[in-house]
Amino acid sequence: MKGAPGYRVNPCALEILLMGASPSIIDQLDLKKYGLKFVYPTTLISGLFEGGRRATFYKDLERTAVHFEQQFSKEDADGYRKMVSHITWALKAAMPYLMGPASRPSVGALWEILKTLLKSRKEVAAGARILMSPMDAMLHEYFKSEEIKIALGGFCLANFTSMSELGSGAYLSILTGAHEFGLRRPMGGSGQLTRAIAACVNDHGGDIRVSTPVEKIIVRNGRATGVALNTGEEISAKHVIAATDPLVLGNRLLDASDLPDTTHRQLKALDGTIAPINVFKIDLALRERPIFSGFGHEDADPEVLAALVLCQNMKDWYRSESACSAGTYDPGNMPLTTYFPSIFDRTVVPDGSEGETMYVYAVNTPYKFSDERTWESHSEKFVENCISTLETYAPGISSLIEDSFTTCPDQFEKRYNNYKGNYAQVGMASPTQLGPWRPIPDFANNKTPIDCLWNASAGSHPVPYLNGWAGRTVAGEVLKKMK
């Protein structure tokens, strides 16, 4: 960070979800050969509550269940074991399908799915029901404890949708799936994964250009033939792979005449279904680790503090969602999700430092305000309100800040070319945004109506979240075409 030399933060993703699922590009591309190393967090998330009560989700499932039984009830412990088992079996059944073209699963994939169904059909069915349901309904069904509900739901739902939306239960797999498939982060920050992939590409003769905006995709006679840069330069290609969300691809990078009317209507319908729920991100360099004494957690272990949901109950979460949908927020009720990446990875702070890097997500943030406020004029005040919320949990934290880096919804859109700042790229989990219907019929299977133009974004994958699998699927399809 400019104002805090030696501190390194992740402007976007921290977790690389389901990276432990096999086959992984880590092994397929032999990325460890290019210096990629990992750290392995022992905690997934903790919710801190009044009176020193906490709900901590450890990487170890049984440790989590024992903690729930001690802190809350046996029913909660058993409920979590059941939820994890149900979702895990559903994920195992779905994995072969999710790693290939959505409408054309291979015979091998179908056989693997069938074997899983034969082993545990009822568990898979129970897991599928969770994934297709509203998240809050499943939380109420499986748990008695309000603390478990808000910690689990708050962590999983920090991505552009409502806890009451049909299909939002799919996001519960983000945390529960980590028990089975593991959780690891690139040592030194997420950029180390990108650097390893870049080194692999260069090693195989590839050419990578950064800070080189594409103005448009060139289409001739119904076929993508290359891209035009904002400098006027044109680059020819046999295939064009667009790793951007479908609305940016269809509405910004292509001329209207390049796509049929049916595609334009599908994109317009898709735009109308995006919830107005967004996020505001703050990265902090702290002089030392803050003490969370505000609600009686001054003695909390570092691993407990490594990832936090800061919201006291479900009612506050619902009120926050409602305000966000109305184009505003309540400064006195700002649910936050926070991380201290440096607790498990000391390479992101200066050698010998007692400092910490902190990642703060203000969830349920409006994409646009319903009044005269803009993010350009209000970002500074919004950050002050977030820090004020942090002060209620960790008094004195503001005095520890060495530097900060903020990303408001506008900046998510401008910096990363994501439609409406939605980094999950059309992150809905409704039934029409799952499987072969995602993101729209004309862009299904990572294809487009334009020959040799592919969509390899998170928005094109059969499930709405960041995982990188869409890129691998498209790479495989293009290689087949080029043989």
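The above is record 1. Record 2 follows with the same two-line structure.
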Amino acid sequence: MNRGGPHTSSECRALGRPWLARLVTTAALVGTVALGQDPERAAYRVVELDLPEDVLASALAVDRDGTLYVGSAEGAILRVRRLESGGPAVEWSVFSRTFDHPCGLLAEDGWVTVTDKLGVTRMADLRGEDGVADHFESLTTAWGLSELPHNWELGLVRDSHGNLYCGTDYPANTTGLLRGKAIQITPDGRTEQFAAGLRSPFGWALDEDDRLFCSDNQGDLRLTNEIFWVREGGYYGYADYQDPTEQDRVASPSAVQVPYSLGGSINGLTFVPRGTGFGPFGGQMLAASWQPGEVLRIEMEEVRGDLQGTVYRFLDGVRAPLSLTFTPLGELYVGSMGFASWEVPEERGAVYAVTFTGGPVFEILHTRIRAGGFELRFTESVDPASFDPGKAVEVESFHYIYVGEYHAAVRDRTRLAVHATRLSEDGLALRFDATPLREGFIHAIHLKGLRSESGQALAHPDAWYTLNQLP
């Protein structure tokens, strides 16, 4: 990567990097492909920003003024400014290059806080002369440096009380302190273990009610990718064998299990801000599915005092997404990282900008468990002429059981009997009964033939609901 700055696309080409010209072409093609694949694509435009392809975007953050900060796995933090609204052209410069695999970023009025393998560091350009960080403060180094290449320190969010949260991974593979934990850093500088039992919690996000969530990656003893509601003192099942207090603890279930068919690695999380014009999904979660390369949508409901919910496909056409963040105006950035040690053919990164075009969106908006079945609500009214009660819904359930494999196979797959399927008068809700409903199982709901009153097919007709508890 060129270490000077700031740079624009044309300046980089003049410095002998003609591949940036190809990136401009790629940006246009990404948008065209996205708009042409299915009805959902008419609603969202995807553009690849004109950044060097050796920027491996392991972390993203946007400041209040719209400045984008990109953490690259090789150690640099870039400061990026867009040169045109909605376009790929950017001006970028290296804000700092001192970090070891930065996997969490937070930008707050010019101050940038970074999580990397060494700890959590806060920095700023206090002199304001050259756009390069010149002031650094270490907030914590409590977990020590691991020599294992896949020991990561992950994510970074701040709650409304000023507490910072991040995660550490792989307690079974290292002798380091505070591994497999959710970490809290208080405003007065204390570093505390907040929760335990995590394997590789890459994505962290807070919802509008200050509830903390993380994604945890499948692998040994973690049967599939999961989204946890992380609560103080909670334990989530991946034991630290150096800590005897974790061996016999009862684990809290995840709020959402993500079937392996939707992604072998679920990473960055973010919530869609309300009132920013990103379509009808305000308040719902987005998750980066690194394999096969798409952004998933997740929404949850409270049942008997706990959260459980649904995952849907949302956006493809992005390569190896790892990190997510929103701008104050409701534009989504998706950071991509192809990493040679992660079994990918090339080491290459990208940052994508996703905007809502205002086009029609016909999707499942909510899935809710009801006595004896489910109720689904849609973003637009279903055309009654497209609704066949006997064919509109298929449901199957399955779960994962650990049998000593790195990744558990689907077990006990059962097709449910669906009956009493009915559409609401306004066409916005579909209710059906299904048997047998099984606690602890993923229930996959597949809709057939439904079209909106404007004639649009469902962009994504499938929903995967994690049924922890019946109502």
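The helical segments are 9-14, 19-36.
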